[in-house]
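User: Please predict the structure of the protein below. I'd like the answer in C-alpha cell form so I can feed it into my own downstream comparison script.

Assistant: Understood. Taking the following sequence of 298 residues as input:
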Amino acid sequence: MAIIYSYPTTVATGTDKVLGIDTSDASKTVVFTIDSIVGAGSAGVFSTATLSGALSAKGDTSYLKRVELDNIQVPPGSPSLSTYRPSQYITYPAVTAAVHGSVGIGAWALQNETTSSDWWTTGSNVGVGVGAGQSTTSGVGNVYLGYVAGNSATTAQNNVGIGNNALNSNVSGTANTSLGYIAGWKLTASNYTVNIGSSAGATNNGGSDRTSGSNCVFVGANTKGSANATTNENVFGYNAAGAGSNTVRLGNTSVTSVTTSGDIETDLIGKGFILRSPDGTRYRISVANGGGLSASAV
C-alpha cells in the first residue's frame, strides 16, 4: 500500500511514493487504499477510495470524506475553448448536470445548475465556498466567492458576490457587484447595483433590511439606503445614509467639511445651491443673466 507524504517533507529524496492512475477511460474502475499520511502531527488512517470517472475520498475516519470531483470526458476531435467548456466540481453532493463552463468548489456549491448545451443560456458560473451559488438553476455568468455567497440566486445573471453572504438573497437580479461581508445580502431582484465594503447596501437608514433598489452605488462600510426601491441612489463614506432616488450623499453626519481644489458647477439652467435658513426653510440660490443672484424657497 502507498504512503503519501505531505509537502514539504523531511523524508529523503527518492523515498516518496507516487500513485498514478489513468482516468482517460470512464469505464475503468480502480480501487486503492491509502494506509497513512505522514506529515505534521501523527499519521491518520484513511479508508478505501474508489475511482470510476470521478475521484472520491470517503469514510468516517477521513477528514476528506465525501468530496467529489466530476470530470466530463473530452469529446472526439480537437476541442477548443470555443467548442468545449467542461464544468468542474469539487463539492458534496456530487454534481452530474451537463453544464458548460462552471466551476464549483465547496460543499453544496452550485448544486442545482440546469443541464443545457448552450453556455450563454446556463452555466459559466463560479461558486467557491460552502453553499456558494447553491440554488443557481439557469443563471449564467455569475461569480460567487465566500460562505453562502449568492446562495439563494436561481436565475440571476452576470453578478459578482465576494465575501461571506454577499448577494445571498439576490434570486433573479442582473449585473450586481457586491464586495464585502454581507454586502447587498438581502437584495432579492435588484439590477446594476454596486455595494463595496463590509455591510455595504445591507440595510436602510433606521436598520431595516435593504431588499430592493436598482442602479444604486454604496461605497464604504455600513453605507445605507434611505428606503427600499430607490433608484440611482449613490452613497459614499463610512456609515453614510442615502438621501433618496437620484441623489448623491458624501459622508455621514459627522462630516464637517467637504473640500475640493476645483470649482463646483451645475450644468442645468435654473439649478443652484440649496441652503437652509435658521428656521429650517430651504432656499435655492441661483444666478440670472448678468450675474445677479436670487433666492427662492424650495
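That's the full C-alpha cell string. DSSP finds no helices and 20 strands in the chain.
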